[in-house]
């Protein structure tokens, strides 16, 4: 993969510049061979391609897990999507994504909860028991109230989730997304919500991109024991061309992924590992080429 | 001020897009007239201009505080800088910046501590009792070790700081800077360091841009009581053209600045309020125009 495109404003005035220096990883690239059976392709990594194209590429690469996104499911059709995935022998590690709870009016909030119910039903139809929740931006609401709307929204979904056998996985996003994508911004905050809701149907998904900076990450991963429903890998590359679409493949950036993975395993999670790399340069490549790169980066740097 | 320049990659694939919606402020723009006597111009806001130019603009605008940066002091000369500021009747709210502690070798770390000693002496010469610490990126070190180097570096400076009557103000930066600017990324983490070091010469500076996202901000501001050495204002604007140089003036973004200011005041801080807006579009304007805009934004939206 080529280097991410450079940001428009790389050069900084001399006085504001800081000598470069990303963190060095503490752990060797691979201390023991990673189990390929845990690798799951998150469909955002192959965003330009259809579900059928991405599924075919996974099957060819010997990848057994897949994590579809709802807009792709909608484009292909739910029943057809389920059929394609089954034909390729792919299991669904999670469905991306529910959430988006905050809204200024009661009606709009109710509509969003209703949409989450549809997402739960879709997850069940795809035979996955995990729905990833990107909890949503403040959407014109004060930050504290928006956070309460998230918690209330998840609480409202629990009976429906239980009924369908689908677990709700809160994905804390990086704090840089607090204004425009998610008011849930740390694993500690997500753990607090899980603890308050006290339901086996509510837990977290841990994405290294969103949590690697956290000085209390080890403590919060340990605290998440028993409610870790997913684990996502990718990498943090600086300078950052774009906050959303310039993530790196594992090994291209500074995140000590093996260290975080081992902490997540020590906390009892041994399920699928989703590779979710939203990257415009990567998306220029062919679907099979992307999947091969994903597989190599997974084997070497996760 | 014109809208910040658009990022190169604004458009996202439809499925990844999120309905826009920044948080609404909870507090009215100004509940009571803000005291202009507390306003301080942080020199980064007028980055293209010399210390003499910025000081003159402050004096003309009736601003009584100024926060110079070391590269500007170096360009003008320390004694001459002190003379200029005194001639204009400007008091120095803080000197920006010390810090930058992590480095892979013992010699380099020692050199950085030595540079911080020079910064302390400069602060004293400028008759300010606050040195802002931007603690530095990992600089090739593992993240945990880099964080320890910060704490060790600050500890090493305490006797010298005390001797010069200069307080060391840790500025936690936004977590998006963990790889390339500061391994200290939350007020809670900074408070923990202050607590462990247990010296009246070590505290924090709170910059709304860096901390507004924190779900535990109120708690940590309250915990910082007695060791808040400074308060910086600006605003968070999305979409973000650049992580460093597209900050907004107060009122242009989504941060509930009055709410945070009141929490900081409730925790006992009533000192200068520095306006620190690093923004390439703003920097295109004349120095006096910038300072007028700063003053207006301060009066209306802080």
From TrEMBL, chains A, B:
Region described as Disordered: spans on this chain: 1-32
Domain of life: Bacteria
GO molecular function: isomerase activity
Record keywords, A-Z: Isomerase
Pfam families: AP_endonuc_2 (PF01261)
The keyword tRNA processing is assigned to this record: no
Xref: Gene3D superfamilies: Divalent-metal-dependent TIM barrel enzymes
Residues in coiled coil: none
Protein name in the entry: Xylose isomerase
Organism field: Alicyclobacillus cellulosilyticus
């Amino acid at each position: 993969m080529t280097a991410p495109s450079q940001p428009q404003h790389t050069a900084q005035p001399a006085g504001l510049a800081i000598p470069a220096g990303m963190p060095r990883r503490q752990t060797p690239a691979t201390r023991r061979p990673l189990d390929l059976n845990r690798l799951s392709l998150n469909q955002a990594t192959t965003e330009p391609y259809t579900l059928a194209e991405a599924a075919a590429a996974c099957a060819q690469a010997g990848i057994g897990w897949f994590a579809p996104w709802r807009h792709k499911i909608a484009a292909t059709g739910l029943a057809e999507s389920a059929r394609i995935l089954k034909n390729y022998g792919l299991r669904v590690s999670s469905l991306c994504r529910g959430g988006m709870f905050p809204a200024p009016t009661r009606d709009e909030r109710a509509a969003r909860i209703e949409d989450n119910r549809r997402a739960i039903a879709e997850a069940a139809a795809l035979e996955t028991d995990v729905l990833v929740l990107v909890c949503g931006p403040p959407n014109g609401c004060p930050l504290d109230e928006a956070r309460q709307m998230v918690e209330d929204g998840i609480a409202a979904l629990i009976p429906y989730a239980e009924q369908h056998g689908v677990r709700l996985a809160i994905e804390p996003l990086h704090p840089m997304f607090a204004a425009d994508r998610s008011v849930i911004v740390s694993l500690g905050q997500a753990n607090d919500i899980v603890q308050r809701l006290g339901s086996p149907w509510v837990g977290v998904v841990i994405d290294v991109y969103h949590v690697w900076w956290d000085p209390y990450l080890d403590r919060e991963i340990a605290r998440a024991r028993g409610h870790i429903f997913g684990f996502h890998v990718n990498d943090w590359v600086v300078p950052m061309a774009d906050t959303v679409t310039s993530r790196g493949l594992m090994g291209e950036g500074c995140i000590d992924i093996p260290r975080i993975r081992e902490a997540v395993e020590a906390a009892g999670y041994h399920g699928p590992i989703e590779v979710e790399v939203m990257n415009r340069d990567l998306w220029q490549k062919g679907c099979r080429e992307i999947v091969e790169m994903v597989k190599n980066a997974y084997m070497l740097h996760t």
